[in-house]
Amino acid sequence: MTLVEPSEKWECAFLEMAAEWSASGETRYAAALSDFPGYLRKVEDGRRDIQSADRVPGTEYWLEDGGKIVACVRLRFRLTAELEQEGGHIGYDVRPTMRRRGYGTHLLRLALPVLHGHGIRRVRITCDEDNIGSAKIIERNGGVLSGTGVSRESGKTVRQYWIELS
Fold first, then answer.
1. Domain containing 138 — which CATH number?
2. pTM score, two decimals?
3. In 3-state terms, what secondary structure has residue 151?
4. Distance between CA atoms of 115 and 44, rounded to whole angstroms?
5. pLDDT tens figures, 119-160
6. Could you give the C-alpha distances from 112 to 64, 106, 162, 165, in angstroms and in order?
7. What 3 state SS string does 62-97 have?
8. For residue range 24-73, what is the model confidence (pLDDT) as tens digits?
9. Per the structure, how many domains does the chain have?
10. 158, 117, 125: which is closest to 144 by C-alpha?
11. How would DSSP label each residue in 104-135?
């Protein structure tokens, strides 16, 4: 398993994953399904350090295993007050049919050094209170629960963690 940068090389494998999300009723990768080159441009634009009240610089990686894209991770290199409460430095998802196989734990383990390489020594990561699988992934990677909050978007309780990087 390895983190790969989004590119045309992985188009078929990524779109297969995106179609699986779509079939499960999730629209998170709908933009990639309708315009893959546009999706890649958006990822590239996110890497630019542009000052904005509603955007922070970051990047996306895909977890590849045997030629298949099994998960995605989005990294944010700065936090806003809102991101500190919900969202944090890292957002990730494992494709529905590949869950409970250790991919999420491995994905987060691979992503942490990337943030460290950007000078981040203390990583904020959050998950919904009812997402027990994600909480376990975070805790297996050194996450320490620091509090809870309420999501502005969903109204759900959100678990807030810090991971100290050495």
1. 3.40.630.30
2. 0.91
3. coil
4. 17
5. 999 999 999 999 999 999 999 999 999 999 999 989 999 999
6. 17, 10, 12, 8
7. EEEECCEEEEEEEEECCCCHHHHHCCCCEEEEECHH
8. 999 999 999 999 999 999 898 888 766 566 678 899 999 999 999 999 99
9. 1
10. 125
11. HHHHHHHHHHHHHHTT--EEEEEEETT-HHHH
